[in-house]
Amino acid sequence: MATVQKERKFISIIGDEDSVTGFLLSGIGHLDARQRSNFLIVDAKTPLSTLEEAFTEFTQRKDIAIILITQQVADEIRHLLDEHQSAFPTVLEIPSKDQPYDPSKDSVLKRVQLLFGE
């Protein structure tokens, strides 16, 4: 287990330009040896297939520990978030500038509520 944690040292983000830019300015941006980034900027023209591919890639990468995804984007690929059962990478939904956070939609909080029988 300790080696798994040492390999996973990056945070990725999928979201609107302002959210992603803010996190990139904080220093989470990374390009690996194959020039793959750990972020995706999403706008109204981003196809659903691109979102799905990025999320799937981030969940399969062994160097990513946490995937941050704006709730607005998460709503578009909710089926993939609901299917993701692994502890690593952990998927966390965050608010965006344009849409406030709605805890009733958050997949992690839904799992916690099921665990506690709420």
From TrEMBL:
Role summary: Subunit of the V1 complex of vacuolar(H+)-ATPase (V-ATPase), a multisubunit enzyme composed of a peripheral complex (V1) that hydrolyzes ATP and a membrane integral complex (V0) that translocates protons. V-ATPase is responsible for acidifying and maintaining the pH of intracellular compartments.
Family, per entry: Belongs to the V-ATPase F subunit family.
Gene Ontology CC terms, in alphabetical order: proton-transporting V-type ATPase, V1 domain
Oligomeric and partner information: V-ATPase is a heteromultimeric enzyme made up of two complexes: the ATP-hydrolytic V1 complex and the proton translocation V0 complex. V-ATPase is a heteromultimeric enzyme composed of a peripheral catalytic V1 complex (components A to H) attached to an integral membrane V0 proton pore complex (components: a, c, c', c'', d, e, f and VOA1).
PANTHER family in the cross-refs: V-TYPE PROTON ATPASE SUBUNIT F, VACUOLAR ATP SYNTHASE SUBUNIT F
Keyword Ion transport appears in the UniProt entry: yes
UniProt keyword Transport, yes or no: yes
Keywords of the record: Hydrogen ion transport, Ion transport, Transport
Organism the protein comes from: Dispira parvispora
Gene Ontology molecular functions: proton-transporting ATPase activity, rotational mechanism
Protein name: V-type proton ATPase subunit F
Origin superkingdom: Eukaryota
Pfam families for the chain: ATP-synt_F (PF01990)
